[in-house]
Design brief:
The structure is a single chain. By secondary structure, this protein is mostly helical. It is built from 14 helices and no strands. The protein has helices at 2-32, 35-56, 59-63, 73-97, 102-130, 134-159, 162-180, 194-228, 231-255, 259-267, 271-308, 316-341, 345-370, 372-413. The protein is globular and about 55 Å long. The N and C termini lie far apart (45 Å).
């Protein structure tokens, strides 16, 4: 029990630090440089977060539910090395395709390198979690993010230069990865079958596409603001988005530690228990989200105005809409993991592609017309549609499982 509590505490600390990094970078940059620079660092971090999905290829969701050990850890590790390289390659392609100024290009590239260290560390975190050692996963997350933020803050304060601050912060994260995560590779068997790397890629491709599209859906409005409204409006949007991230963080803390247990129950064909846990988790996420939305509608804008030192009252409607979108994002994140657990990755692709196309068209038009309010509406409507479609799929699976169970009972007794 003590180990369980220790694991949970460390995992919460790591998850909080990981989720808070973007917001803290924005706040620090806002105080030391201003709203335009804060908007620049935020959209750069958002782009790096999107490209991070390539590096992770979302293998961890498969890795922690691989209870039959179909792949060795070293196969997961080599696969991650390959895709970290691909991540950097695509970051260069993306930057070259945009007409950004040199400073913004450099910041995006440096933050992509930082996110590459996160992708590298993630394969070790997956192994820790699979072995029931959530404390190990939490520790590496917490210290990597904390060191990065500390070095960024001190360097920006001294140099007043975003590129220099990012450079030294990224360097500190790389040193931490080498010292902490790098030492664990010696502890694992180096058995590897190279054809299985292709097999792993094939199996995780649908998961990658769905999560990549999910991340795009969350950030689509930010990309449209970057294109049509500029860095200052980007800064305002992300100031309002902070509590939305908190909703998502709480949901991850609730459901992520239980994914290995759910996989085990599903493999044992204990379907009723799985469905009960799913319903209970959806209820908990909705109740916590409702509390945050209610408090946000009453106290959110005054608190954020005090926190940032910038008057945000005119954006109250946008803020409440974003909070509703955050609730939908939290639910979709959980349902995404469940559908992956049930190995319905291919179906997820079609859902995400449909919603992504719809939200892009919606965001493009609404941001042009209403700027920040339009971005908030596009975000909420896109995530709401995603949840509705996922719940529809889950209900179909539930009915199918129930029908099969009744068929077995009738065969035995009648």
């Amino acid at each position: 029990m003590k180990n369980s509590k220790k694991d949970f505490v460390w995992y919460i600390l790591g998850s909080v630090c990981n989720a808070a990094t973007s917001a803290i970078l924005m706040i620090i940059t806002l105080y030391l440089k201003g709203t335009i620079e804060a908007g620049m660092i935020t959209i750069s971090f958002t782009i790096a977060q999107q490209i991070l999905i390539i590096g992770r290829f979302e293998v961890r969701s498969y890795q922690i539910t691989d209870v039959e050990n179909k792949y060795t850890f070293y196969e997961y590790f080599i696969h991650r090395i390959i895709f970290c390289g691909m991540m950097l390659f695509f970051s260069v392609i993306y930057i070259a395709s945009k007409n950004y100024e040199k400073e913004k290009c450099m910041i995006i590239f440096l933050l992509c390198i930082y996110k590459m260290t996160e992708a590298f560390s993630d394969v070790f975190q997956g192994q820790f979690q699979k072995q029931g050692n959530l404390a190990g996963a939490g520790k590496t997350m917490m210290w990597r993010e904390a060191i990065f933020m500390l070095v960024y803050s001190i360097t920006l304060w001294i140099s007043s230069n975003l590129i220099i601050a990012c450079f030294f912060a990224v360097g500190s994260a790389m040193i931490w990865i080498i010292l902490f995560d790098g030492r664990y590779i010696k502890k694992y068997d180096r058995t590897i079958s190279y054809p299985k790397l292709f097999s792993l890629t094939k199996e995780c491709l649908p998961i990658f596409i769905s999560v990549f599209m999910n991340t795009y859906l969350i950030n689509a409005s930010k990309y449209m603001i970057d294109q049509y409204a500029g860095d200052q409006m980007q800064s305002y949007y992300n100031m309002l988005f902070l509590p939305v991230s908190i909703i998502n963080l709480f949901s991850i803390i609730i459901f992520f530690p239980m994914m290995t247990e759910l996989a085990d129950l599903w493999n044992k064909k204990m379907y009723e228990k799985v469905m009960i846990m799913i319903k209970r988790t959806i209820g908990i996420i909705s109740i916590l989200s409702g509390i945050i939305i209610l408090l946000g509608a009453i106290l959110g804008i005054p608190f954020l105005t005090f926190l940032y030192g910038i008057e945000l009252t005119e954006f109250k409607s946008s803020f409440v809409i974003l909070l509703l979108g955050g609730w939908c994002t939290a639910l979709s994140g959980f349902l995404n993991r469940i559908l992956i657990l049930l190995r319905k990755q291919n179906l997820l692709i079609f859902i995400y592609l449909l919603v992504a196309i719809g939200e892009r068209v919606l965001a493009q038009n609404l941001v042009r017309r209403w700027e920040l309010l339009g971005a908030a509406c596009a975000y909420f409507l896109g995530m709401l549609l995603l949840v509705v479609l996922m719940l529809g799929v889950m209900e179909h699976i539930r009915r199918k499982v129930k029908k099969n169970e009744n068929r077995i009972i009738n065969h035995i007794f009648f």
